[in-house]
UniProtKB/TrEMBL annotation:
It comes from Streptomyces enissocaesilis. The keyword Lyase does not apply. It comes from the Bacteria. NCBIfam families: LLM_duo_CE1759 (TIGR04037). It holds the Pfam family FMN_red. InterPro entries: CE1759_FMN_reduct, Flavoprotein-like_sf, FMN_Rdtase-like_dom, NAD(P)H-dep_FMN_reductase. This is FMN reductase. Residues 1-152 form the NADPH-dependent FMN reductase-like domain. Keywords: Flavoprotein, FMN, Oxidoreductase. SUPFAM superfamilies: Flavoproteins.
Length: 204
């Protein structure tokens, strides 16, 4: 299995990248506790911004962007984290996912998350991020994670779980979906495929 996180934060360091890292740690820890060793990678879209714009105009992805797109396609689990801009996901975030074949997300376990200055933007998870990945037919975990500035270091209150609790719960849900997916068959190389065709001919 392989875990990929996509962070659309624009600054360095950014709270968006920090949230992505915390979620990766949560998923990896949960899978590790059940005997799964899962390599993980965080893709920083800020480093690919020029390549994304170029691809949208020319239709040809530069090598670094092509590698990032392939990593998302091949991932067994995806964490997608964006800052909130004008009550929705960022343009950079949407532009990146517009470049990927929608069929690549069918049944793929996805955890959505966002960061913003205040808690009043938290509904972006339900009115923007979840519908986007539902349209792509992804398997979205029930718990989405929003982190406002005041959430960092917060333990929550009697009505609301703190950010660490939400991260643990969402990470556990994504880990469970990833572990439940059937193993993917390795593609045959050309020689193996030819041998199989010859064997079929001999039995005709």
């Amino acid at each position: 299995m392989k875990l990929i996180a996509v962070s659309a934060g624009l600054s360095s360091p950014s709270s968006t990248r920090l949230l992505a890292d915390r979620l990766v740690e949560s998923v990896g820890g949960e899978l590790g506790a059940h005997g799964h060793t899962v390599p993980a990678e965080v893709i920083e879209l800020r480093e690919l911004a020029r390549d994304i714009a170029s691809h949208l105009v020319t239709g040809f992805p530069p090598p670094q962007l092509a590698a990032a797109v392939d990593a998302v396609k091949e991932a067994d689990g995806l964490i997608a984290v964006t800052p909130v801009f004008t009550a929705s996901y960022s343009g950079l975030f949407k532009s990146f996912f517009d470049l990927i074949d929608p069929d690549a997300f069918t049944g793929k376990p996805v955890l959505v998350a966002a960061t913003g200055g205040t808690a009043r933007h938290s509904l972006v998870l339900e009115h923007a991020l979840r519908p986007l990945f539902a349209y792509l037919r992804a398997a979205i975990v029930p718990t989405a994670v929003y982190a406002a500035s005041e959430d960092w270091g917060s333990g929550g209150d009697e009505y609301t779980d703190g950010l660490p609790s939400r991260i643990r719960r969402a990470g556990g849900e994504l880990a469970a979906l990833m572990a439940a997916r059937p193993a993917r068959a390795e593609p045959e190389d050309d020689v193996t495929a030819l041998e199989r065709q010859l064997a079929d001919l001999r039995f005709d």
